[in-house]
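Sequence dictates fold. Below is an illustrative record:

_____
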Amino acid sequence: NPNHFPILGHTGGIFPLLNSNALGNSDFANGAMAAHYGNVYSGVMDMNLRKGNNHRHEFMGQVGIFGAEFMAEGPFKKDKGSYLVVARGGIFSLLQALNVDIGTNAVPQYYDLNFKLDFPTKGGGSWSVFGVGGYARVDLLNDNVDTSDIFTVRNNNAYFRNYSALMGIRNLHYFNETTSLKTTFSGVLQHYLQDRDTIMGDRSALNYQGRLKYDRYGVQSVLNKKFSNKLLTRVGLQSFMYIYDTYRLRVREDRFTVYAVENQFMGSLFGEMQYRFSEKLDVTLGVHAYYWSINDRNWAVEPRFAINWNLHPRHHLSFGYGWHSKAQSADLLYTLDQQPDGTYTNVNRALGPTRSHHLVLTYDWSISKFLAFKFNAYTNYNYDIAIDQVPSSFAMMNYEAGASQRIQANLVNGGQQLNYGAEASLERFFGQGFYGLLSASYQRSFYRASDEIIRSSAYDIRFIGSLLAGKEFKIGRQKRNAIYGDLRFNSREGAPTTPIDLEASRTRGGTVFVEDQAFSERLGWYNRLDVRIGMRFNHPTRRISHHIYIEVLNVTQARNDLTVLYYPRLNRTVKAKQFGLFPNFLYQVRF
């Protein structure tokens, strides 16, 4: 999970661990993924670190609201390999000292490092050593809590720590002009630590401890072969060993809710073939197979199919189908249920993967040199989703997306979900100093849990729209410098939410949801307008440039809904709001 402050068992977070200044070519697949992608049923961000400059040494420093960073790149020897290193740290503690409102009294701290070293050789191919790592911490403390603070909870102290690291060695070897082999040895460490104190009248201390710690070591190898101008093939394998040491402990009750200390193996094979019938038409067939040793249900052999048709030099049509499987998260599989005699059962360990059928249709129209239109229609049917054994509205795909959907024990595969939608975009590529992007989409998402009721899922957003536009003006005698301005507007319908049982919440002293009405209500529409003005200056004789911009996020101060919770101190429900107007700036120097 390449993010700071992640949700346990998920792939999101607040701040990215990957640095955009270090990224190279990256692809996004929103469905019907190619055969070399496995253990995923939603979408794929295929991200790559770029090579450093192998001609000359360059440096960059920048500071902004979200952190300060420094980058260095250059050759070990001219045209003989290169290095790239980027280090970054958050500065929120400094902002708080300057009385800048960041929306909470909790001050997040984070640091990360991205690097890549490239070594070309004459006979052994090209070698790369790369790594991404970071540390993050935040303390959500009871001191000075007020109702405007959307992260801290009264009478609670919570402490979060997150350590993440990825390191790998990659070799790319060309046997000849038509055959290549890429092999990567890698290791991943992810350690999430949580402690929580519930401050009672007797000032009692530690109430909860949590740790999700797993290391993954393995190898991935991909062989590419071009038999002719019409036939291309690719085959590959990957083999990983997972080392788990994880638990969640309710200290006051002396009860584990999650526990595992063990090793598991995951392996996969894939093959795909692309055949070009003509300059206008090509077809790709593929298959992906995987196995996970956690139980005898975690295996799959999945077909993939895609067709690309160039109707005209400016018109392109593509269609794809894929069957995909995603293993359940370790946090779910190792969830325990304590019996009256004090022993534990682990029904969740027998869960199989969530499976999905994808269909995607895409149309691209290159209107002119600077203008393009794209239309995308899709549907996917997800099944074998983890749900309760007894009738309820719980389904694992809503986990942490709705406040009422928490990990539970005693789950079985049986839930279903149907997603479908269409989206269109009109893009104006950068040219003559102008660029823009207008997009709109309509999408629906429904699910059925063990109570057999079809409901909107947490992702049934329906309408989404966005606009991005900017203009750059060259200035100065030699037009070496530039001043620019741009704006970004996002709007979407409110996310589904579950109503709160006010009387039950008052009795418990905490939020109680009406579970049989899950996701039957909606938050308000989300609208946000961001505006930015910036300048770039290049020195006329020296290799040095300056870039500075000022940005105002949510310039209209729209108070968008975040969630609805019961606040015991106020004895009523409160609709927590997201940030209002938020200023941002960046100063960057390259030399």
About this structure: The chain has a mean pLDDT of 90.
